[in-house]
């Protein structure tokens, strides 16, 4: 099936959420080891009504000041709203052989909803068949809705739209005419980030070149730092966008060393680092492309509690839902010229109202078309 056809099927399952923009803060290190008592002791019944309110949030590791921590902020809010949420750190890809057991333990403890990112999709789909009385949420992913079981819901973000906006900024800020987008690992969702970014760069200034590379891990900041230093030295890149989870710290470290600008991802990484033990990293982060994972999870479970139809479909969220965007803080305003900020704001409005359609990785017929895009902008 062509990628474009897949996306067309995906968009048929659109559900609109009202999302608040993700603000600053620090990543939680919640260890809810004994929070399973509520779900197990009450036999999975909700504190009120007949909706089971027990959630197991499966995450690689907290503390990435990005994607995983954004999801945890949603769990914290759900706890405040009376949900029994247990956050389970399953470890990075080196612990992949234990991931399924981790989810099975959560089910055995009485947790009804299993929530995990696209990293765990194959395991989720397997367990959904084996445990039809449980319900599973895969966020940051999409698939043909005809193949989604009735006890599974997908949440998909238009990361290409948010990446387009920071791509415009990168093109407006570069002095060398070369910018970089570096990722943790390649997969369709990450390629969608890259596609949107490249198109934002090119639409702002078609003369700006883009280098792209992957470090092969979400947890290797040292490798990311070395990669960025090499790109700055050998390819003259001077604005760097990271889509790399915990590896992204290395990109910020490299930018501090070289005096270049950086763009964060998923959460307000300027705010995270400004309040961290390494505040100097914040001083290179012009903005972050927001993917409001925490807000989307809260909105999703509000829909569940309200009895709305969210299962067996892809729930798609973009700029019009405020599910993606960019950080517009004082540091951004002080360092990004007005004309660049105006261009970003104009594009944001046009994308949200449907006047501007941003190219997506899912528009390509096959991988060769995506590679052709990468080749067309390489220095």
Structural commentary:
The protein is α/β, with parallel strands linked by helices. The chain has two domains: 3-158 and 293-321, 3-Layer(aba) Sandwich (Rossmann fold), CATH 3.40.50.2300; 159-290 and 324-377, Rossmann fold. Helices cover 41% and strands 17% of the residues. It contains 14 helices and twelve strands. The protein has helices at residues 3-11, 36-41, 67-80, 99-108, 121-130, 159-173, 188-204, 221-234, 248-258, 269-274, 293-305, 330-335, 338-352, 367-377, and strands at residues 54-59, 84-89, 113-117, 135-139, 152-157, 178-183, 209-214, 239-243, 261-266, 285-291, 314-317, 324-326. The strands form two sheets. It has a six-stranded parallel sheet with strand order 2-1-3-4-5-11, sandwiched between helices. Strands 7-6-8-9-10-12 form a six-stranded mixed sheet, sandwiched between helices. Helix 9 (248-258) links the parallel strand 8 and strand 9. Helix 3 runs parallel beside helix 11. The longest helix has 17 residues, at 188-204. The chain is globular and about 60 Å long.
Report the strand count: 12
Write the H/E string, N to C: HHEHEHEHEEHEHEHEHEHEHEEHHH
Do you know the CATH architecture of the largest domain? 3-Layer(aba) Sandwich
Report the CATH superfamily of the largest domain: Response regulator
CATH topology of the largest domain: Rossmann fold
Across the major sheet, the strand order is: 2-1-3-4-5-11
Given as residue ranges, the uncertain stretches (5+ residues, pLDDT < 50) are 1-49
Overall geometry comes to: globular
Q: Report the portion of residues in β strands.
A: 15-25%
Considering DSSP H and I runs of 4 or more, what fraction of the residues is helical?
40-55%
Largest sheet features: 6 strands, parallel
Discrete helix count: 14
Mean pLDDT rating: 87
SSE class: alpha/beta
Pfam families: Bmp
Subcellular location: Cell membrane
Domain ABC transporter substrate-binding protein PnrA-like: 57-358
Main location: membrane
């Amino acid at each position: 099936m062509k990628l474009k056809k897949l996306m067309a099927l995906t968009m048929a399952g659109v559900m609109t959420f009202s999302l608040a923009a993700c603000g600053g803060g620090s990543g939680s290190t919640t260890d809810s080891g004994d929070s399973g008592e509520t779900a197990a002791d009450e036999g999975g019944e909700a504190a009120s009504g007949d909706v089971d309110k027990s959630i197991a949030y499966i995450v690689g590791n907290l503390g990435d000041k990005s994607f995983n921590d954004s999801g945890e902020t949603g769990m914290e809010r759900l706890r405040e709203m009376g949900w029994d949420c247990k956050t389970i750190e399953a470890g990075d890809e080196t612990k992949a052989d234990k991931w399924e057991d981790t989810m099975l333990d959560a089910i055995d403890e009485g947790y009804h909803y299993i929530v995990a990112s696209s990293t765990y999709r194959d395991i989720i789909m397997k367990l959904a068949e084996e445990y039809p009385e449980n319900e599973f949420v895969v966020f940051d992913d999409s698939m043909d809705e005809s193949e989604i079981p009735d006890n599974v819901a997908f949440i998909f973000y238009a990361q290409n739209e948010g990446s387009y906006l920071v791509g415009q900024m990168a093109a407006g800020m570069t002095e060398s005419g070369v910018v970089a987008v570096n990722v943790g690992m390649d997969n369709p969702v990450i390629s969608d980030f890259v596609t949107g970014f490249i198109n934002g760069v090119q639409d702002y200034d078609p003369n700006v070149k883009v280098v792209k590379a992957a470090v092969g891990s979400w947890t290797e900041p040292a490798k990311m730092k070395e990669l960025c230093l090499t790109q700055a030295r050998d390819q003259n890149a001077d604005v760097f966008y990271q889509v790399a989870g915990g590896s992204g710290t290395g990109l910020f470290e490299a930018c501090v060393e070289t005096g270049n600008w950086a763009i964060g991802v998923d959460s307000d990484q300027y705010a995270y680092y400004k309040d961290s033990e390494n505040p100097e990293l914040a001083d290179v982060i012009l903005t972050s492309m927001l993917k409001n994972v925490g807000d989307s999870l809260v909105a999703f479970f509000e829909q569940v509690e309200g009895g709305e139809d969210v299962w067996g479909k892809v729930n798609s969220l973009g700029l019009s839902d405020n599910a993606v965007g960019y950080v517009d803080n004082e540091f951004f305003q002080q360092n990004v010229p007005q004309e660049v900020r105006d261009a970003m704001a104009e594009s944001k409005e046009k994308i949200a109202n449907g006047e501007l359609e941003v190219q997506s990785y899912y528009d390509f017929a096959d991988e060769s078309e995506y590679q052709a895009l990468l080749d067309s902008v390489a220095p």
